[in-house]
């Protein structure tokens, strides 16, 4: 079984460098942001969400660790959001490193996440996934997540 261990400050800095760039690229690929503004917008969002790094209020950043080998196999970041109806957990980022994919780590990480969220007294987990990320969509649906919103675009090629 995997463990969710609090991300260290040094792991956070490595994560942040990669995550800001990947998030910008995902928004460009989805057609949300123009390439010339994407990196700046991504940096701004991360700064707003994580002003104090791993110590940011209501933000939980973890390294996903194989419980047997001790190897870091991915990352998971969720936050407690205070929505109008009731607080929930929102997964901002989740990644199983490429060399560890399709070995059950993602499923185990989300099962462990559910335990953590319940320990915080929360009864739901939400997340966003880009439409082009079919492997993630399949994982989330297999874990019991349901589509609550769906945005669609048709590119006209003009």
List the helices and strands and how they pair.
Elements lengths: L1 E5 L2 H21 L5 H15 L9 E8 L5 E11 L4 E10 L8 H15 L5 E3 L6 H9 L16
Parallel strand pairs: 4-5
Antiparallel strand pairs: 1-2, 2-3, 3-4
CATH architecture: 3-Layer(aba) Sandwich
Largest sheet: 5 strands, mixed
Task: Compute the separation of the termini in Å.
Answer: 50 Å
Number of strands: 5
Which class of secondary structure composition applies to the elements?
A: alpha+beta
Broad shape? globular
Q: Identify the CATH class.
A: Alpha Beta
Radius of gyration: 16 Å
- Per the CATH scheme, the topology name is Aminopeptidase
SSE topology string: EHHEEEHEH
Alpha plus pi helix count: 4
The oligomeric status of these chains comes to single chain
Lateral strand order in the biggest sheet: 1-2-3-4-5
The helix fraction, in percent, is 25-40%
- Unreliably modeled segments: none
What does this structure look like?
- There is one protein chain.
- The protein is α+β, with helices and mostly antiparallel strands.
- It has one domain (2-142): Aminopeptidase.
- It is built from 4 helices and 5 strands.
- The chain has a 5-stranded mixed beta sheet with strand order 1-2-3-4-5, with helices on both faces.
- Strand 4 (87-96), helix 3 and strand 5 (125-127) form a beta-alpha-beta unit.
- The longest helix is centred in the N-terminal third of the chain and has 21 residues, at 9-29.
- It starts with a strand and ends in a 16-residue tail after the last helix.
- 22% of the residues are buried.
- The mean pLDDT is 92.
């Amino acid at each position: 079984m995997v463990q969710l261990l609090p991300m260290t400050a040094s792991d956070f800095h490595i994560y942040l460098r990669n995550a800001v760039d990947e998030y910008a690229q995902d928004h460009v690929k989805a057609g949300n942001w123009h390439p010339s503004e994407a990196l700046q917008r991504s940096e701004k969002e991360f700064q707003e969400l994580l002003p104090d790094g791993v110590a940011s209020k209501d933000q939980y950043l973890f390294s996903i660790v194989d419980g047997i080998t001790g190897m870091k196999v991915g990352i998971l970041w969720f936050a407690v959001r205070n929505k109008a109806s009731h607080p929930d957990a929102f997964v901002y980022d989740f990644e199983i490193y490429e060399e560890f994919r399709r070995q059950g780590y993602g499923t185990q990480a989300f099962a462990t996440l559910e335990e953590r969220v319940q320990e915080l007294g929360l009864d739901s987990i939400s997340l966003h996934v880009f439409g082009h990320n079919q492997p993630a969509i399949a994982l989330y649906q297999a874990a019991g997540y349901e589509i609550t919103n769906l945005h669609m675009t048709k590119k006209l090629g003009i």
